[in-house]
Amino acid sequence: NRDEILGISPRDMEQYLAMQYGLLNNDVSLFFLTGAQGSGKTLLSYVCAVDQILWYEKDMRSKRLQTDGSKSKSGSYKNIILLKPNEIMGGKRRDIGALPGSLYSKIKPHLGPYLDGHRESILHEYFPFEEMLRHPRFPNDFGDKRRDCGNVKINNEARLPADFEAIEMTYSGFMRGRSFTNTLILVDEAQNFSPYEVKTILERMGEGCKGIIMGDPLQVDNPYCSREINGMTHAISHY
Question: How far is residue 182's CA from residue 128's CA, in Å, rounded to a whole number?
Fold first, then answer.
């Protein structure tokens, strides 16, 4: 058991149990994390997810029980797939219309909780959040290739993945036909996805994947969902 992840420690027993028995437990391949606003769902999930894709030094891999006999330096998962609906509070009438600028500037308002989580953890001491979205070797939709973050040793123990973006942002509508292996899939605000969308997302999970499904069923902004029937409650009921 680890009491601190990238500078973040659980503040109560519920957070501790969520971290130790769900978020950090590789034997749990699908974990549902529900809670009211401000309960720490996104912060805990973010730091635990990042911790599991970092490339740790050999002695630390042994301490972390990453001893599968291989010489791979990679983490428990190769990267993070982040799925988050773009519904806004108040619905379409609150929409501010088309936004100018880069893709990152367009989606940045939807990533506020992750920006906050990045700043609260020790990660912000090494690089800004947007570097998590950039590829280490090639330009992508979020700009030029990642800066020299791959050579930065986080806490003098670990580095970002050298082969993939740390976080791949994708849209649920593009999930058809995709399949993932050895990937950690974060589904945020799952109550604003439809049951069909969450079902489709979970069907994409292949060998070595872990799914973390977060949400608050009492905060439903999707007009096609309700507190009783939405992607979160339907999946929990099914499993």
Answer: 25
